[in-house]
Amino acid sequence: MATVMEFTSPAEEFPLGSIFENLPGVTVELERLIPHETLIIPYFWVRGSETGDIEAEFESHEGVTDIRLVDSIEDEYLMRAEWMQEYFGILSALAKANVVVLSGIGTKDEWRFEVRSESQEAIAEFREYCLENDIPIEITAVHAMLPIQGEGYELTETQREALVLAYERGYFDTPREASLEEIAADLDITQQSLSSRLRRGHRRLIGATLASSS
Fold first, then answer.
1. Which is nearest to 139 in space by CA: 120, 123, 121?
2. Rounded Cα gap, residues 195 and 191, in angstroms
3. Helix (H) or strand (E) holding 33
4. Residues 6 or more apart from 189 whose CB is under 8 A from it?
5. Which stretches does DSSP call E strand in 51-195?
6. Contact criterion met (CB below 8 Å) for 122 and 116
7. Which of 61, 107, 166, 188 is least enclosed by beta carbons within 10 angstroms?
């Protein structure tokens, strides 16, 4: 049974967390992780700073072998990094247990992850790896995968919550009956985080419906 786990980890315990030391206003959101022999390559969105400052922060990290800007949308930057193995930490635990990151958002306070595995055994393997390697995580929820309807939508709980609330509040109506700011306030998240959840939720819904039937 596909299982979803939510957990938090101190900001400094995740490789990308080093950016918060000098850029505390930055938010980092994982896009995906690509295991590659001795490297793990994370793609991630960064908000709250200029791309030059972000690159400079990571270039000074001794564990980073390469970092580059992939794309940008307004004030959000999609970046790609290559990490040396000894600095993997949670990245290594996720890759070894074949656990998929559904969402991973980091601020100066902490990292919040939502991950999915094909079985409870993989989740247990991830937890055991973290324990054996002194990687601190605090598990906040473990539950079965909950599709909106039918099979295969694979929305995260946070994406589903944002999409449903935006729909119910009339965000998708013309004219709009609620703003992004109002819905973000209801969810107690930033407008940028809400925008990201809606975008990723749309992508998964389209991928599971329109794209799969074409």
1. 123
2. 6
3. strand 27-36
4. 197
5. 64-73, 76-83, 100-106, 110-117, 138-144
6. no
7. 188
The band of 165, judged by pLDDT with boundaries at 50, 70 and 90, is very high
Residue 96 tokens, joined:
């070894």
Q: How far apart are alpha carbons 32 and 43 in whole angstroms?
A: 5
Query: How far apart are alpha carbons 19 and 10 in whole angstroms?
Result: 13
Give the Å distances, CA to CA, from 35 to 66, 129, 144, 182: 15, 17, 25, 39
* 182 pLDDT more than 60: yes
Helix or strand run (H / E) with residue 1: none
Q: Which two tokens stand for residue 59?
A: 């270039």
The amino acid that residue 26 corresponds to is V
For residue 10, the tally of other CB atoms under 10 A from its CB is 14
Q: For residue 52, count CB atoms less than 10 angstroms from its CB and return exposed for 0-12, middle for 13-18, buried for 19 or more.
A: exposed
25 vs 107: CA distance, rounded Å: 8
What residues are paired with 141 via a beta bridge? 6
Both structure tokens of 181:
């700011």
Using the 8-state DSSP alphabet, how is residue 189 labeled? S
Cβ neighbours for 39, distance < 8 A, ≥ 6 positions apart: 65, 82, 83, 84, 85
pLDDT digit string, tens, across residues 144-158: 765 544 454 667 778
CA gap 203, 193 in Å, rounded: 15
Instruction: Render pLDDT for 37-64 as a digit per residue (tens, 0 to 9).
Output: 666 677 888 888 887 888 888 777 777 7
